[in-house]
Amino acid sequence: MEQLLNLPPDGSAHGPAIDNLIVIVHWLMAVLFVGWGTFYIYTLIRFKRKTNPKANYAGVKSHFSNYLEVSVLVIEVILLVGFSIPLWSNRVDDFPAEKDVLRIHVIAEQFAWNIHYPGPDGRFGKRDIKLIDSENPLGLDRTDADAKDDITTINQLNLPVNKPVIIDLTTKDVIHSFGLNAYRVKHDAIPGMSIPLWFTPVKTTDQIREELRHTFSIAEAMKKVETMSLPLMTKISIKKGMDMNDHMLMQDITNASGEMVMSKGENLNSENIDKLADTGTNEISSRPMANLDKFISMEDYKNNAGEIIVAKNEILSEDAVTKLVEADMKEIMAREGSTIDPFVVMEAYADKSGNQIASKGDALTEEMITKCSEAGINDIVLAPATPTEIACAQLCGLGHYKMRGYVTVQTQEEFTAWFDEQEAALNPPAEESVASDSTSVQTTQE
User: Fold this and answer.
1) Label partner for 276 (CA 20 to 30 A): which of 94, 179, 260, 293?
2) Beta carbons of 280 and 249 less than 8 angstroms apart
3) DSSP character for 102?
């Protein structure tokens, strides 16, 4: 059932209990769906008008349906009292001891997650709303003794594995939904409230990435190669009031004083056409928009001077298409791009001569796909570059997609190294101290 539901990998200590509850609830819903659906079909056939032309107002006298409804009710009570309430209670009441946890503040805003770690002293510094600006989104008062060593990040949450984490969750503006899907954590951040939640990550981000390994077919990607026609450049007459929003200008236009009015590549909407007409221009070179930015070139294309104007594996942007049209090209070999989502390769790949194409962990690129195809490699193994992330499920506004943050769960050693690096960047050694240390070393040697 878990595979059928396509649940994401679970990386938290409490995750199995949540997944089990989800599976049980779905089994119950499946049984109810089949049962009531079957009963519905039975009644349509059993009591159809042809065999029952006269209505029976006495109704069903059996109590079977009552027993069935009570059974469903009992099962739902068991799910609620035996599974849901204990699981919920454990998350809201049974918090681990403060000395055993990493405590973090997460403050949401449109459109970012602000993360606040206490420094080595373990105490959070004061925050003042008057100090909030673009450089200090939390309003952290660095003059406060407890704040001098505090670490802040934006959209990047680093955690150690196998250590309980308590997150104090709040927001600066509207309601946001803080979700760590891979760690089975989700809670609303509500303005004016600081809500604690806790969990224990038991898998690192690298381990979860390994679980998400899958095969990508290079052969299938290369089947998408096709010959594509390019738009033609033509001379057209214009006048005020025209609208050619699906066309692009193919020349620079200047006024009588030599000042630029419109540049090559600009859209010929009604406003721009009126602007051209005002300069006395009545004929221009244009072309239809190509809308080929989802495709990439499969060859190097050169102009008459032998210069490469569009390189192999280059995205066919409108600017690239303009260069091709200017070079009087009518067709191009291209394929639909494959790297819509960020993936990394999970194995090393080389061509037949032993030249390396990709190392494990390298980001998947269109050039890599082409080189693998040319090397006769039909399949490669991929995994998501960021398998663990912070996701906001609320409608936060037009910039909702920007609320994606990144969670990196590391070994304790890796987390300590990251923490020390952040602390060193925050409080670099004073120049006088370094100079004094150098003088002391020199004196000792003498």
Assistant:
1) 293
2) no
3) E
Please write the tens of the pLDDT for every residue from 55-98: 777 767 777 778 888 988 998 898 888 888 888 888 888 889 88
Give dist(CA 79, CA 270) in Å, integer. Answer: 63
181/392 Cα distance (integer angstroms): 10
Nearest one of 169, 167, 160, 165 to 205, comparing CA atoms = 160
Cα-Cα-Cα-Cα dihedral of 193, 194, 197, 203, to 10°? 120
The span from the CA of 291 to the CA of 102, in Å, is: 50
Tokens of 356: 């390396």
CA distances from 162 to 93, 116, 248 (A): 20, 20, 57
What is the C-alpha separation between 366 and 249, in angstroms, rounded?
A: 30
- The answer to whether 346 and 381 have CB atoms below 8 angstroms apart is yes
pLDDT at 429: 66
How many degrees, rounded to 5, is the angle at CA 130 between CA 126 and CA 136? 70
Question: Whole-model pTM?
Answer: 0.76
pLDDT tens-place string over residues 355-403: 999 999 999 998 999 999 999 999 999 999 989 989 887 655 545 566 7
Measure the CA–CA gap between 411 and 205, rounded to whole angstroms. Answer: 10
The pair of structure tokens assigned to 286 is 């244009």
Q: Counting beta carbons within 10 angstroms of the beta carbon of residue 390, is it exposed (0 to 12), middle (13 to 18) or buried (19 or more)?
A: buried
Q: Where are the domains of the chain?
A: 2-53+61-92, 98-209+389-426
Domain 98-209+389-426, second-level architecture: Sandwich (2.60)
Mean of pLDDT values over 118-126:
93
pLDDT higher than threshold 70 for residue 157: yes
Single-letter amino acid code for the residue at 177:
S
pLDDT at 446: 47
